[in-house]
Design goal:
single chain; 245 residues; alpha/beta; 6-stranded mixed β-sheet; 7 helices; globular
Length: 245
């Protein structure tokens, strides 16, 4: 049984159809990418899954429980880190716990348990302006994890980073996923990034967004070292480009 499902999702705004009959699922431990051009409805789909908007049709299931239109069940990180500049990193990270009603001291203690896992030891009392872009993203990802440790929605979290930092964070994030058994739905418009990170890729067509194809990465290729240099990488890329074009 899938951990997270979006079934038959359709959304319209002001009479304009944004998404039509979307069916996707995320299994435990997977990283699944939603790949599409700008304006294809990727973020709208995440807003539905996160419970921020209700679809015209369809439903969202987490562990077979209907969570359609209900917030707080899955973690959601937008493209920008949105760390509060006047709060320390420990307080930024602990904020979801405090919002849920946990006392500040307890929330800080709970958040600090994961600082070593996310490579943030020693950053607890620093402020966002004192961190590099990559470290800010690590802090934002940990804050997102604090919202709900079951499934994460990441909306182009690495797009603003330089290529070298992005590559390092890719490797780091996969290591974190494995260590804490995290499952991730990942929005990107970067084809290479989708192939390098994903177990599966859903290719989303232009508005109204529809699933054009589901591409399963061969287990031998999933996050394989040197995948960029393999013939199979180019095959996945050709397949994706043929759908998008």
């Amino acid at each position: 049984m899938a951990l997270l499902k979006a079934e038959n999702i359709s959304v319209s705004f002001d009479g304009n159809k944004i998404l039509e009959n979307i069916d996707i699922e995320l299994n435990a431990g997977e990283l699944v990418s939603i790949l599409g051009l700008s304006g294809s409805g990727k973020t709208t789909l995440f807003n539905v899954i996160a419970g921020l908007i209700k679809p015209d049709e369809g439903r969202v299931l987490l562990d077979d429980e209907d969570i359609t239109g209900r917030t707080g069940y899955v973690s959601y990180m937008l493209q920008k880190d949105l760390l509060l500049p006047y709060r320390t990193i420990i307080d930024n990270v602990a904020m979801p716990l405090m919002i849920s009603g946990m006392k500040r001291k307890q929330a800080r203690e709970k958040a600090k348990e994961y600082f070593s896992v996310f490579g943030l030891n020693g950053c607890e009392k620093l402020y966002p302006a004192q961190l590099s872009g990559g470290m800010r993203q690590r802090a934002a990802l940990l804050r997102t994890y604090m919202m709900s440790g079951r499934a994460e929605l990441l909306d182009e979290p690495f797009s603003a980073l330089d290529a070298i930092t992005k590559s390092h964070l890719h490797e780091w994030y996969i290591g974190v996923m494995r260590r804490i058994k995290l499952s991730t739905l990942f929005i990107t418009h970067d084809i290479d990034e989708a192939i390098l990170l994903s177990d599966r890729i859903y290719v989303l067509g232009e508005r109204p967004g529809r699933i054009l194809k589901e591409i399963c990465i061969d287990p031998a290729d999933v996050r394989c070292e040197g995948l960029l240099l393999k013939d199979s990488f180019l095959s996945y890329k050709r397949e994706i480009l043929s759908e998008i074009k």
